[in-house]
Each structure stands twice: as C-alpha cells, then as structure tokens.
Design brief:
Layout (H helix, E strand, L loop, with lengths): L1 H20 L2 H5 L6 H15 L35 H4 L7 H9 L1 H4 L13 H13 L2
Helix pairs in contact: 3-7, 5-7
C-alpha cells in the first residue's frame, strides 16, 4: 500500500514536471513574426531590391513610381508618372495577392513592363515586402 501511494506521488511529480517543462511556448515553438516585424523585414527587402528606382514618399516618382499608397491603388494610376502601355492597360488593383504574383515574376504578369527587376523569388521576402508596402500611406 505504501509503495502504491509512493508510486502515485512520483508519477504525479513527473507529470507536473513534464507539464510545466512543456509550456505552450515550447510546444508551439517561437512565435511567428507579426505584421510589424514582417513590415520591418520588408523594409530591408525594399531597400535592397526596390529603393534604387522607387521612393516611398507621396509624389516622389523616380525611375519607377512612388510606392506610397500602392496597396489598393489601380495599376498604372500614380499621378505624375509615365507608365508603360502594359501598366496603362492594366485593369486590376494592387491587392496583396496581385502584388505577390507581380513581384514573383513581373514580366509574366505585365509583358512589356519597363521594370528591370526579374522578380523576388522568396515567398517570405515577398510577403514581408507587401506588408511594408501596405504600411506606406
């Protein structure tokens, strides 16, 4: 009888140790970055891949149009920028989904684009970049 009670106490201690040791943080792993972290990572991607041709301030077009307010805007509609015919003929808005497709392979989505970027092949980089672009108002 004493052995059974002692065994139960030991077993309860083991279960408690395992339960505490495997807290939700450990079980789930590191939390995935939220939108703010993704946008910060996207800014890094933007500076490496896009900033040479695109500004982020409203009204500041460069070789490419400003990216301020791009998410939700109709393709080829940035004031003061001379778009290629491919963009002028575009009938879509820059939704996150459309941006993802375009950034993956610009020349396939808009044949005739003036944009020299071959594409952003890493899906995470594209997601981060789109979150950053969405933060630009």
């Amino acid at each position: 009888m004493a052995w059974a009670a002692s065994s139960r106490a030991i077993l309860a201690g083991i279960v408690l140790s395992v339960t505490v040791g495997l807290s939700p943080t450990v079980v789930r792993g590191a939390p995935s970055p939220g939108p703010a972290e993704d946008a910060a990572a996207g800014e890094v991607v933007f500076k490496k891949r896009c900033a040479a041709c695109h500004a982020v301030a409203p009204g500041q077009n460069r070789l490419g149009p400003t990216m301020a307010g791009v998410v939700g805007r109709k393709v080829g509609s940035t004031p003061g920028y001379k778009f290629s015919q491919a963009f002028k003929d575009g009938k879509i808005a820059w939704t996150p989904k459309n941006l993802d497709k375009f950034l993956a392979n610009p020349r396939v989505v808009f044949p005739g684009t003036k944009m020299s970027l071959a594409g952003v092949s890493d899906p995470k980089d594209r997601t981060d970049l789109i979150r950053y672009l969405a933060s630009l108002k």
